[in-house]
Amino acid sequence: MPTADVPRALERVVRALPQGGEARHGQRAMAEAVGRAIHDHRHLVVQAGTGTGKSLAYLVPAILSGDRVVVATATKALQDQLATKDLPFLAQHLGRSFRFAVLKGRSNYLCRQRAAEVAGGGDQLVLDEVPGWESESGSGSIGSVASQARRLLSWGARSESGDRAELDFEPSPRAWAMVSVGPRECPGAHRCPSGEECFTEAARDKAAAADIVVVNTHLYGAHLASEGAVLPEHDVVIFDEAHEVEDVMIAAFGAEVSAGRFRALARLVRAVLPRDEAAVADELAGAADGIDAALAPHVGRRLPPRSDRQLTGALEVAAGRLSRASSALRSAEPGVGGEEPKPGGPATTRALLAAGHLAGDVATASDVGPDQVAWADGLPHAPVLKVAPLDIGPMLADALWARTTVVLTSATIPPGIERRLGVAAGTSDQMDAGSPFPYATNGLLYCATHLPDRRRDGAEGALHEELAALIEAAGGRTLALFTSWRAMEGAADALRGRVPFRLMTQSELPKPALVKAFSSDESSCLFATMGFWQGVDVPGPALSLVVIDRIPFPRPDEPLLQARRERFGPAAFREVDLPRAATLLAQGVGRLIRSSTDRGVVAVLDPRLAKASYRWELVRALPPMTRTRDRHDVATFLAGPSRSGEPTVSSRGARGRAGDAASPCRP
């Protein structure tokens, strides 16, 4: 692909955008850089601020390259945007024919074989005979699990894709599980009676024939962890929302053991073995109870290798019972007279595969190496044993960077991401595409330096006083982001009835409904926790103030990060905690300016942003807004722009921009 074609093609598609689009220097520079990276087979890391138009900036050169390109996104919203808006638009206006496809994980598609079994075919797993189905209610008012399953069977019979996203209702997890399979259970098309009409295989075939394949980052992690067994061969991968890649890959190369997996396997085994071998399923259910009992006291804590005798014993028992179950499944004879299930069929194969995968994870959890960390996660009544690598870089160095050209892009690129992901020195280029939005004139960063240390008596009350004053100055129109549920609920309780605006919290509605309600009621306030620090897009005056209660440092007792801190020793804070806090803080701040006409204030109620020795690492990660430490400046700014269009900042406040030599939030 001649790289000179990229800017001309980009200009053509931008002109075709609604209202004619607009030329963006950063978008063009990014598109050219992506084109060079693909052409030269060099990795690229691009920070593309809000409004850059980064999806077109990487899709145009990707399509023109003629290579097969996988685009991995961290959010469903971005995946849907690419599949339903950007790629169809480019197919119409780029002037170059290409094929694209969306590929999801196997459990997102209805399994025709499972559907046949549930409906009464195959292994005779008759719907009405499944214990507990009629008594378990589904989500909302859509009826029992059995009635949901019947709706799923009816939908599956007429669906062309079998993609769960097509459903007009949300089935309960159990109902969907009865008509789907995960990657640990599926025997593959060649070993399945329904393989020739499999929805997942059809989606894979379409992806194999496509030039651009859109996937979830978790699916790409599964592809790497399975040594390339999930996705079609490709030349380039583009990770959008690249700040999520490290955590996703760590999870993909790890292992999980839970009682739920044993109980699910017990149900599979019970369904396919003769009744006189039901003891095998009972043993698996007993192993599940042992896992639960051993993990419950450790939830939220690390588990040093073989440190707990009860857990070690539970894992040994579980391994033995998995071995016996696998032997029984392999040697089972067909049932007699049609009343018994038929071992040796697809359901038996799925059970064998599930048992094998679970046995592998149990073995990993039983022998945690020095480069891994194990901990108990989840809730006390449903604990999960997790094992993860401490350093994902060496694994990705071989599985990813040595084999594929990689583009990492995000509005916020975490400091040191190349090193942590294992990019070899000298093999990558970096660029900052900036943002076309006028942060310097339309945004004000306020740091409440007068607030007391959060550990002091009365600190919470002072924070609530400050928050109330800010909301009053903004006329509502506030998204308040908190680092904990306790802090969010405490602030909401303190301010309800005190401020004359509608106040909603994250606990009231699902995220999409909350964002919609907040956007449509211009004077309302929304209080939320970490799930709203990113992925919230509310342009216009309904969001004029973003309040952040404190710098979002990770918890000191988070097991994986705790182990990584120990590995880094004295450098742990700057290598582990600070980059994560800077990235998440920038994500939260990025909720404010979502269009070229947006205008508002980000208020950080944590004096450390102005006083701590590490303050510049945080401030430099933020957009280049004018800064102040005076709340009077906030009220003046929110009241409207000065005649010159510049933010008005009093002599008592800061007159700096993020990245200046002056200290942030100080005169």
Structural features, described:
The chain is α/β, with parallel strands linked by helices and 667 residues long. The protein has 4 domains: 5-99 and 210-252 and 392-434, Rossmann fold (3-Layer(aba) Sandwich), CATH 3.40.50.300; 106-200, no CATH class; 255-389; 439-639, Rossmann fold (3-Layer(aba) Sandwich). Helices cover 43% and strands 13% of the residues. It has 25 helices and 17 strands. The strands form 3 sheets. A 7-stranded parallel β-sheet has the order 3-4-2-5-9-1-10, with helices on both faces. It has a 7-stranded parallel β-sheet with strand order 13-14-12-15-16-11-17, with helices on both faces. Helix 3 (54-65) packs across helix 4 (76-93), helix 9 packs across helix 10 (245-252) and helix 13 (309-331) runs antiparallel to helix 14 (346-366). The protein is globular and about 80 Å long. The model is unreliable at 121-142, 333-343, 651-655 and 657-667 (pLDDT under 50).
